[in-house]
Amino acid sequence: MAEYQHISHGFEPVFDERSRVLVLGSFPSVLSRAHSFYYGNPQNRFWRVMAACLGEEVPPNAAGAVSEEMSIEAKRRMLLRHGVALWDVIESCDIKGSSDASIKHVVPARIDRIAGVAQLEAVLCNGGTAGRLYRRHLEERVGLVAQVLPSTSPANASWSYERLQARWQEALLPYIGGAAVR
Predict the structure, then answer these.
(1) Spatial CB neighbours of 139, under 8 Å, sequence gap ≥ 6
(2) HSE-CB for 92 with a 13 A CA cutoff
(3) What is the C-alpha separation between 94 and 104, in angstroms, rounded?
(4) Which letter does DSSP use for residue 102 in this model?
(5) To the nearest 10°, the Cα dihedral for 28, 59, 75, 63?
(6) Where is the Uracil-DNA glycosylase-like domain (predicted)?
(7) pLDDT in tens, 68-116
(8) Rg of the chain's alpha carbons, rounded to an integer?
């Protein structure tokens, strides 16, 4: 059984001054921390869902790209082209492995880094844990009520890919313009 460890996030948020919608997860998984980028577990449906919602091809994973850096850069560019910022609610915490349920001693992300630069119109939380943590630690500072979406995690097996993609598309559509579902 995994033991508690105090872990810092370890990589930067994705955003620029054109970001209109902020997507927040809770905290990077073990695989994401190992790859130094968001949603590093190939079973997580985040990148497939986002690509479909944004009308783009799914960016290559590290195995399909020339390098892991190119894979990360392709994902970053895809989000920024459509005004999507990406970060996590937590800067550091005590956690067992990748278990959101084990999170304690939360240090929230320095959300001002994004809110002070981007013209945010919406916050979308990837799952209930991110939503609860956002309400508790960041909502007042951002000034936007978050929409909590179903988690793209493989642990959320009750949501099929198709249903998940449709729900995320509905939430993103007002902020991403004319992107089409592929």
Answers:
(1) 145, 146
(2) 5
(3) 5
(4) G
(5) 60
(6) 12-172
(7) 677 899 999 999 999 999 999 999 999 998 888 889 999 999 999 999 9
(8) 15
Element (H, E) at 164: helix 161-176
Tokens encoding 139: 């909502």
CA distance 148 to 131: 6
**Total Cβ atoms within 10 A of residue 45:** 22
Bin 105: left if φ > 0, else alpha if -120 < ψ < 50, else beta. Answer: left
Answer yes or no: are the C-beta atoms of 49 and 152 closer than 8 Å. Answer: yes
- Contact yes or no for 147/135 (Cβ under 8 A): no
Q: What tokens were used for 155?
A: 């642990």
Q: Write the DSSP symbol of residue 26.
A: S
In the chain, the domains with their CATH numbers are 4-176 (3.40.470.10)
Residue with tokens 């970060």: 87
For 23-47, the pLDDT digits (tens) are 999 999 999 999 899 999 889 999 9
Nearest to 76 by CA among 131, 9, 138, 11: 11
Read off the tokens for 93. Answer: 């915490």
